[in-house]
Amino acid sequence: MNKNYDSLKLENQLCFPLYACSKELVRRYQPLLQKLDLTYTQYIVMMVMWEQKEINVKSLGEKLFLDSGTLTPVLKKLETKGYINRSRSKEDERNLNICIAEKGIALRDKALEVPIEISKCVNLAPEEVIAMHKGLYKILDYFKSEE
Amino acid sequence: MNKNYDSLKLENQLCFPLYACSKELVRRYQPLLQKLDLTYTQYIVMMVMWEQKEINVKSLGEKLFLDSGTLTPVLKKLETKGYINRSRSKEDERNLNICIAEKGIALRDKALEVPIEISKCVNLAPEEVIAMHKGLYKILDYFKSEE
DNA sequence: TTATATTAAATTGTGTACAATCTAATTATA
DNA sequence: TATAATTAGATTGTACACAATTTAATATAA
Lengths: 147, 147
Description:
2 copies of one chain form a homodimer.
Chain A: H1 15-34, H2 40-52, E1 54-56, H3 57-64, H4 68-80, E2 84-88, E3 96-100, H5 102-111, H6 113-119, H7 126-146
Antiparallel strand pairs in A: 1-3, 2-3
Chain A binds a DNA duplex through helix 1 and helix 4.
């Protein structure tokens, strides 16, 4: 009895092109982020900080889909660079509050160039970008609803 | 003069949901792949091997968007597990040929369960999956055309 | 209230990823 | 054909990512 293995073909996967596309696009951020002395992970942390000014590690992790094992060293690095400050919450000492520093606020203007340059790397029409965005968040929202 | 920072909002990015979705979906493969004694990276290598039986590291890297720095240790691990064999090409000793082993071929039947289970993790309609797939490969093909 | 359970970060260990460099084999060229 | 250039993998160093565990703080319950 011959089995049908089509479902195991690389070209029939959804996860693989997601994974490859994500990696390749992140790789294209690196030369742009180097000018800001940021890695991609540090950059998405700073995007949250630019919007919120202050947040604890748990909330940050939920927003970015990252756990403390990843965030702890990244946040220590960002503090060393002077972009953020870390301090325990007075109300609940278990919480670590992350605060954007002056140097981090100043970085925002320089960062404006990044999305401009990155958009040149993606050859999708605006409506295709919107459709992709919508589909990705449909999946991500579903993932969140499962927890 | 107030600047508009909307382009730096997390919710306006395309890369971030790609990155998060890819990570979360790969994470959902792990318990399924554990039964096959594979990691996700090892799994996508095996998907190529099931289709091709034989390939060299360079071609494999081009298919998977991975370089030798990543592949070398992964392929050594797969050889240790007995799923593949590594041998230098007789025609050109620079090339390393990867060959699927008996144990690797046998793994294919067990792997058939993986895409079935994974499809339950993704709440997209079939036509949405197709659209997403198409958009991702449009980007990936463009990336390839740049090199 | 004291013991138990829960929670938030940090730590530890394993496995990618990739830039940069190195080494050996092959190819191209003066 | 000797030398230079190129190519394929391997190696090294840095930075995630996450499961599992630990630690300290807080909340809950007997």
